[in-house]
Write a structure and sequence with these properties.
This protein is mainly β and 339 residues long. It has two domains: 3-95 and 113-177, Lipocalin; 194-337, Beta Barrel (Lipocalin). 11% of the residues lie in helices and 41% in strands. The chain contains five helices and 20 strands. It has helices at 34-38, 87-91, 95-106, 246-250, 254-263; strands spanning 3-4, 7-8, 40-49, 55-56, 63-68, 72-78, 115-125, 128-136, 145-153, 157-162, 171-177, 199-208, 214-216, 221-227, 231-238, 274-284, 287-296, 306-313, 317-321, 331-337. The strands form three sheets. Strands 3-5-6-7-8-9-10-11 form an eight-stranded antiparallel β-barrel. An eight-stranded antiparallel β-barrel has the order 12-14-15-16-17-18-19-20. A hairpin with a 3-residue loop joins β14 (221-227) and β15. The protein starts with a strand and ends with a strand.
């Protein structure tokens, strides 16, 4: 379930980076090619209250992406001005300083969110989209869902109406496309077809190539790597986080409310139990080349690039090697395809 401003809506705020100009015409209905056209990455540009005509140009203050593949979506947004230490500097902070820094990455002085991540599944029936949350920064939203009515989708723009609960206004969400579907290399690189990367992947295990030690990730963490032709989103949550509804949260004291909110993102050692990030990539010489990260729960990672050699890629399995750490160790990560 996506989140808009401070209020969690039971609707999916799909993303789309719109074209440079405004959309001048709208098809009456989404076409039969909606499923194919909607796949990609969209940036949310405006939200219009259809009852009052009030227009929120949300792209002026937040970067908001929704990414679709065949049957999965991920949703990540980030507000401006977030700061955070690199891991070596963070390790030098006192526990209280680590706590305060983590809090300011995620909430402003009014306890409003500054970052968000979620993901799930969707189905289309003509212009109706039914979606379900599978991963969310808000534990109570997992397995919740909603309905949206698609107004139009084309090469550059996408819009839908919310289908609200009783008494809520209808809102129109307008997006622009930010990726370039179809731009992956069409020729094989060695025994690998780059097009096989398209889709959503679940991290299953990691292996330390030096020691051979294997960690089974899937039993304790839902960890997705969601890839289109040019963009990726990485979102994971540790299983077993406490579920607290908004009504229950409102009954807590301010200190307890802050503690509950904090525990959604970090554990008692100030290490993450939830993560989300997103950016661009290209494939070169059988290597996944990470373009500058556009969004990350850790502000220091924004703009960081990297290379991840691919050791296996086919329609069911994706395996890559991490860049060597300072001690020379390398981790091999294995995924299975979800869609």
């Amino acid at each position: 379930m996506k989140q808009y401003t401070h209020v969690v809506l039971c609707l999916l705020a799909l993303v789309g980076c719109a074209p440079q100009g405004e959309q001048t015409s709208e098809p009456d209905r989404a076409s039969e090619s909606t499923h194919a056209m909607i796949q990609g990455v969209w940036q949310l540009m405006t939200i219009e209250n259809m009852d009052t005509g009030e227009m929120d140009r949300i792209a002026d203050r937040r970067t908001i992406w929704t990414q679709y593949t065949d049957s999965y979506w991920t949703y990540v947004w980030m507000g401006p001005g977030r700061e955070g230490s690199t891991p070596p500097d963070f390790a030098q902070l006192s526990p209280d300083e680590q706590y305060q820094e983590n809090r300011t990455k995620m909430w402003d002085e009014d306890e409003q969110w500054r970052f968000w991540g979620s993901g799930g599944t969707y189905e289309l029936d003509d212009t109706r989209m039914d979606y379900t949350n599978v991963v969310s920064i808000e534990p109570y939203q997992v397995q919740m869902g909603g309905v949206e009515e698609i107004l139009y989708v084309n090469d550059t723009a996408y819009a839908y109406h919310s289908v609200p609960r009783s008494g809520e206004p209808v809102r129109k969400f307008t997006h622009r496309r930010v990726d370039t579907m179809g731009s992956l290399p069409t020729t094989r690189q060695g025994d690998m077809d780059p097009a096989d990367l398209r889709g959503n992947w679940q991290v299953m295990s990691t292996r330390h190539t030096g020691t051979g030690e294997v960690e089974q990730v899937a039993p304790y963490r839902t960890n997705w790597f969601h890839v289109t032709d040019t963009h990726w989103t990485y979102v994971w949550m540790r299983k077993g986080r406490e579920v607290v509804t908004p009504d229950e949260l409102a009954q807590l004291t301010p200190d307890d409310r802050i503690a509950v909110q904090y525990a959604k993102i970090w554990n008692e050692r100030h290490r993450p139990v939830f993560w989300a990030s997103g950016g661009t990539y290209r494939i070169e010489n059988q290597t996944f080349v990470v373009g500058p990260r556009d969004m990350s729960i850790e502000p220091w990672m924004i703009g960081v690039e990297g290379e991840e050699p691919i050791s296996q890629l086919d329609r069911t399995t994706y395996v890559y090697l991490s860049p060597p750490r300072a001690d020379g160790s390398v981790t091999e990560t294995t995924h299975r395809r979800l869609d």
